[in-house]
Specification:
The protein is an alpha/beta fold. Helix 4 crosses helix 5 (121-129) and helix 13 packs parallel to helix 20.
């Protein structure tokens, strides 16, 4: 190799070699234009990115920095993005990216054979699915690979033929479909949903489709996780992160949670493992997998005891009277084994004065000491009264005050049976409930109580009533902190502490306590019940709730 001229007393040598090799590195960062885009595949984060393009090819990406300001009192959204987004162009040009339709080889072989015989796509499909041996052949190959590529024309023909056959044989409602969620692609969502609508098919929401999304959310709220934006985390003063790994699954937003800690917010992490978010927590509750409901029930026991019985918290009771079903009356059914909770008392049970009365629920008015049919129940949405609202008024426009409990003016105290599934099927817990007697329009006497009184009994808050009630938090009867300890592995002292702090902070700050929930609690049997036990903590204390879905990682498909 030719040596260069030496200078600086031999410490430096001038290289005679050319520098053309450096051009490859300079070319790597050259671009023709910059466009704005986001990473919408399997991610609802919708971070705004600058995409650098050269010769029509994505070369690299950086985060946009033109987000509107959130104001002087809140951290800014930008820089918004994550490492998965920064490497997203690699996914775009990955050799393993699926760009064409594929079909199982066994099914395609049968399809081409039957189509050649019949010359009719619908008949060809019928011959395959109605032949037990042929159907078994392609169904049994599932999970074993064996996909082959086929043309878009063939793919569309097979799908269309199978839809037509299903409609003719079973009816259009037997075709069930799902489109990409609107947050990812409105055009794709609209296209697939429109097709299913036109043929009379059944459209699944992504709550039905993805296993880790919460069916309890629309069950309770009537909508799919319409929650505050992530910047609102900064406004909370007590935050429980429960089943959602915020630093991983909400990477662009996790800083709001981290920064809230410097704003005085206390953070509690609930997870079986020492997850990423637990390192930010002041308290970690290491609940055993799948036992979150027991933990939440015990926390509910504490909140009801401390903030509804030991001392009444007007901020809480005012909220539950207006925005929850806790004051509404429930009929107690007589069975051969004893009383158990039945359905809601309806306006149609009392008289025939109400249009759609079978869809209008009833509570007891503390002012007039009588049952009242309030505005806001489902029947008012569809009748012609125009009174579908949550104003606490009767049908004459007079103010009413829903009674939460019959404890002080009950006609009797009845023992009610509550199911208890922790030991074995068929187990029950029998506890006393304050009851009112009401005559229906046929003159029959109905025993009714409030949802609140049933909840108090179910959770085990005794209030001096008879029955199998626990005597204290240390009594291991359902659903005390001591009871949950052997199930969840969480110390009862920690449950009592967190429940008290969470509710007390909400009372002091007028609702600045928050639960960030995620898909981690939804991967178990009866996940809707697990989820609803956690939602109870929000409902009872006028607190905030934030759902973190699983689809928030650019280019990734793992669960939250």
């Amino acid at each position: 190799m030719k040596r260069g001229h030496k200078i600086n007393d031999g410490w430096t040598e001038e290289s005679p070699r050319g520098r053309d090799w450096e051009k490859m590195y300079r070319h790597r960062w050259q671009h023709d234009k910059i466009v704005r885009s986001t990473h919408g595949v399997n991610c609802t984060g919708s971070c705004s990115w600058k995409i650098y393009v050269k010769d029509g090819i994505i070369t690299w990406e950086t985060q946009q920095t033109d987000y509107p300001s959130t104001g002087a009192d809140t951290p800014e959204y930008e820089p918004r993005g994550c490492p998965r987004g920064a490497s997203y162009s690699w996914y775009t040009y990955s050799p393993v990216r699926v760009k064409h339709p594929y079909i199982r080889g066994d099914l395609y072989e049968m399809w081409t054979s039957e189509l050649e015989k019949t010359k009719d796509p619908v008949r060809a499909w019928e011959n395959i699915v109605t032949d037990p041996e042929k159907r078994k052949r392609y169904v049994s190959s599932r999970g074993k690979g064996g996909f082959i590529r086929l043309s878009w024309q063939d793919a569309c023909m097979i799908i269309a033929a199978s839809c037509i056959y299903t409609i003719k044989t079973y009816g259009p409602d037997r075709i069930v479909g799902f489109s990409p969620i609107p947050a990812m692609s409105m055009v794709s969502y609209a296209g697939g949903t429109r097709f299913l609508s036109l043929i009379g098919g059944t459209i699944l929401s992504f709550y039905d489709w993805y296993a880790d999304l919460p069916p309890a959310s629309p069950q309770v709220w009537g909508e799919q996780t319409d929650v505050p934006e992530s910047a609102d985390w900064y406004n909370s003063k007590y935050m429980i992160i429960w089943g959602t790994n915020l630093p991983q699954t909400r990477t662009p937003d996790a800083h709001f949670m981290v920064e809230a800690r410097y704003n005085g917010t206390k953070v509690v992490g609930v997870s079986p493992d020492y997850a990423e978010y637990d390192k930010f927590a002041d308290i970690w509750l290491p609940v055993r997998p799948g036992t979150d409901a027991a933990l939440a029930m015990a926390m509910t026991h504490v909140v009801l005891t401390e903030f509804y019985v030991n001392q009444e918290t007007p901020y809480f009771t005012d909220y539950v009277k207006k925005y929850t079903d806790l004051p509404f009356l429930v009929i107690l059914d007589e069975t051969q084994d004893g009383l158990q909770s039945g359905r809601f008392l309806r306006a149609s049970d009392l008289n025939d004065d109400h249009t759609l009365g079978e869809w209008k629920t009833v509570f007891w008015d503390a002012k007039t000491d009588r049952p009242v049919v309030p505005n806001g129940s489902l029947g008012f949405r569809y009748d012609d009264s125009g009174k579908w609202n949550l104003e606490l008024k009767d049908q004459q426009g007079k103010a009413v005050d829903p009674l939460l409990s019959f404890l002080k003016n009950a006609d009797e105290v009845s023992l009610v049976r509550f199911p208890y599934f922790a030991e074995k099927r068929g187990d029950v817990v029998v506890r006393g409930v304050p009851v009112k007697w009401i005559r229906d329009k046929q003159g029959h006497t109905l025993k009714v109580t409030t949802v609140f009184d049933l909840m108090m009994a179910h959770v085990g808050v005794g209030r001096g009533l008879p029955g199998d009630y626990p005597t204290s938090y240390d009594d291991p009867k359902p659903y005390t902190p001591a009871w949950q300890e052997s199930i969840t592995g969480v110390k009862k002292a920690h449950v009592i502490r967190v429940a008290k702090e969470f509710a007390e902070n909400a009372a002091r700050t007028k609702g600045k306590s928050m639960i960030a929930m995620g898909g981690g609690t939804n991967h178990w049997y009866h996940s809707d019940q697990i989820y609803r036990t956690i939602l109870n903590l929000v409902l009872l204390g006028r607190r905030q709730w934030w759902w973190m879905g699983a689809l928030c990682r650019a280019g990734k498909g793992a669960a939250a």
